[in-house]
Amino acid sequence: MMRFKRFSLSTVLIWAALLLVLVFTLAPLLFMLTSSFMTSRQIVRMPYSWIPDPLYSANYLKALAGNDGSWIFLRNLFNSLFVSITVAITTVLIASITGYGIAKFNFRGRNFIFMLIMATMMIPFEAIMIPLYMVATGLKMQDSYAGLIIPFLVSAFGVFQMRQYLTTFPSEYLDASRVDGLGEFGIFWRIVFPNCAPVIATLGILSFRGQWDNLLWPLLVTQTEKMKTIPLYISKFAEEKLTDEGAMMAVAVIASLPMFILFGALSKYFIGGSAVYESRKG
């Protein structure tokens, strides 16, 4: 006879709640994807049909070309990719070096420096936005990649995250490497950095996403269309009077792809990072 596993009422309720959360999470994404293959008339038709019939792929061509046919979307896409990747790389490198120094080297004022870095996290970006803009203007970094990248080369949160992770890194490995004659930079680059994959992936994804979604600073520091980023393109596309809802959804799908690809490539490190940290802490 087949035996059916009995589930308690609490287990059933938990799974039902998780399933409900999953539906509410995936429904907007599914709507974005399906409506990107529909005409505007099909999108607003009620009840909404979740299966496009027929597939209207012209939305993606219009999304790339823009309402004015300038094809500036490709340049804006490149700008966002370049800025986000550069900031993610520099944030990981600088934060990991700084976090390693604070976590594993004893020097006078170490705790004070760490607390000073932590204190900067309490300052909202809106409070320093205007002074930062004045500095960028004084250094003639407006409408340039330097103006988009330099203010975000490193984050206090990244230093905090790397420091907290590296405090659990066994110091015996470092001492053994020094005995073997390996220099401090070699210890960091060959021993410490390769063993920080979970926290590096997490910090890289968060840094990339932060710049990919950044709207306020590029809105201030860029003037020409060729230097604008994806969030600005989407904002302009949505504000135009003749916006095609299907093309708007196609723009959203294309703009979402890099984040899905990045998370898919690094998900095993991103998800496993907390488990590794807890196991080392224990």
Give a structural overview.
- The chain is mainly alpha-helical and 282 residues long.
- The protein has helices spanning 9-35, 40-44, 58-65, 72-104, 110-120, 125-138, 145-149, 156-166, 171-179, 184-192, 197-212, 216-221, 230-239, 245-281.
- The chain has one domain: MetI-like (MetI-like fold, Orthogonal Bundle), CATH 1.10.3720.
- Helix 4 runs antiparallel to helix 11 (197-212) and helix 9 crosses helix 10.
- The protein starts with 8 loop residues before the first helix and ends with a helix.
- Mean pLDDT is 85; it is low at 274-282.
Question: What are the salient characteristics of this protein?
Answer:
about 280 residues, MetI-like fold, 14 helices, mainly alpha, about 70% helix, globular
